[in-house]
Automatic annotation (TrEMBL):
This is Mitochondrial adapter protein MCP1 transmembrane domain-containing protein. InterPro entries: MCP1, MCP1_TM. The chain crosses the membrane at residues 59-81, 119-138, 172-194, 224-242. Keywords: Membrane, Transmembrane, Transmembrane helix. It comes from the Eukaryota. Residues 132-244 form the Mitochondrial adapter protein MCP1 transmembrane domain.
Length: 265
C-alpha cells in the first residue's frame, strides 16, 4: 500500500507540473501560430513580449525547465512502479495465492485507471518521444546560444529559419515531430492533468451508464480534431517562418550552433 500511495502522490506531482508547463506551451505555441497571420515579423514581436514570462530568471525554472524535469522524472518513476507491479502480479498469479488477492486487485485497479481517465491510446509513447525532441530544441535555442553569445534573449525566429533553409531535413523533422507529438500528448492529457491538480474528488465510480462508450468516443474524436487542427496551424506557422524569413544577420553564428548540437564539448 505504500507504493500505491506513492504512485498517487507522483500522479498529483506529474499533473501539477504539466499544468505549470502548459502555461509556457500556450504562450510559445501562440507565437508560432501568429506567423499564419503576420508572418515571421509578428512572431518575432510576440517573442519579445513573451520572453519576460518564460525566460525570467525566476519563472523559467518554474514553468519551463523545472516543470518539465519534474514531469519527466515523476513519469519515469511511475513507469518503474508499474513495471514492478506487473512483475509482482505475474508471481502472485503463478502461485495462485488467495492471500494475495488484495494486492492483485490494487494492481489491477491502478492499471485499469489508464483506460478510464480520458487519455488517448499513445499518450505515454508520445511522452517518451518528447524527451529527446524537447532536449534538441532547448539545446538549439537556449543552451548553445548562451555558450556562443553569452545570452539567448536577443534571438528571434531566425535561428530556426536558418535551420529550415540550410538543414531542412533535420530541422523540419525535429520541429515537425515536436509539434505533432506535443499537440497529441498535451491535448490528450490536458483535461486530466487539470482535473487531478484542482479537483480532489474524482467521479470514479459514477461513470457506469450505458452511454459511457458513446460519450468516450465523442470526447476522443473531439480531441483528435483539436490535435489535427493545432498541428496544422503550428506546422503552417513553421513553414511560413522557414520560407518567409529573408534577413538572418547571424547566419555564421547559427551555422556554428547547428554544428554543435550533438557535440559533447
Amino acid at each position: 500500500m505504500v507504493l500505491y500511495k506513492t504512485y498517487g502522490i507522483l500522479t498529483t506531482i506529474q499533473s501539477a507540473s504539466a499544468v505549470a508547463f502548459s502555461s509556457f506551451i500556450f504562450v510559445h505555441g501562440s507565437q508560432i501560430a501568429l506567423a499564419n497571420v503576420g508572418g515571421p515579423d509578428m512572431t518575432n514581436r510576440w517573442l519579445l513580449l513573451g520572453r519576460p514570462f518564460y525566460q525570467d530568471e525566476h519563472t523559467e525554472g518554474l514553468v519551463v525547465t523545472g516543470a518539465i524535469t519534474v514531469h519527466v522524472v515523476s513519469g519515469l518513476a511511475k513507469a518503474a512502479i508499474r513495471q514492478y507491479w506487473q512483475g509482482q502480479r505475474k508471481k502472485q498469479l503463478n502461485k495462485s495465492d488467495n492471500d494475495s488477492n488484495e494486492d492483485i486487485n490494487t494492481i489491477l485497479s491502478v492499471n485499469n485507471k489508464k483506460n478510464t481517465n480520458g487519455l488517448l491510446s499513445y499518450h505515454n509513447v508520445t511522452g517518451y518521444f518528447l524527451i529527446p525532441l524537447c532536449w534538441i530544441h532547448y539545446r538549439l535555442v537556449r543552451e548553445l546560444p548562451v555558450k556562443v553569445f553569452g545570452d539567448s534573449s536577443m534571438l528571434d525566429v531566425g535561428i530556426v529559419a536558418w535551420g529550415l533553409q540550410n538543414w531542412p531535413l533535420f530541422t523540419y523533422t525535429v520541429h515537425g515531430a515536436l509539434i505533432g507529438t506535443a499537440a497529441y500528448h498535451i491535448i490528450s492529457g490536458g483535461a486530466t492533468a487539470y482535473q487531478r491538480t484542482f479537483t480532489r474528488k474524482r467521479n470514479s465510480g459514477l461513470t457506469t451508464k450505458k452511454n459511457d462508450s458513446s460519450i468516450a468516443t465523442t470526447k476522443k474524436n473531439k480531441k483528435i480534431t483539436v490535435i489535427a487542427t493545432t498541428g496544422i496551424v503550428l506546422l503552417s506557422g513553421l513553414i511560413i517562418i522557414g520560407r518567409c524569413t529573408q534577413k538572418i544577420p547571424l547566419r555564421n553564428e547559427y551555422a556554428s550552433i547547428y554544428s554543435m548540437i550533438f557535440s559533447t564539448k
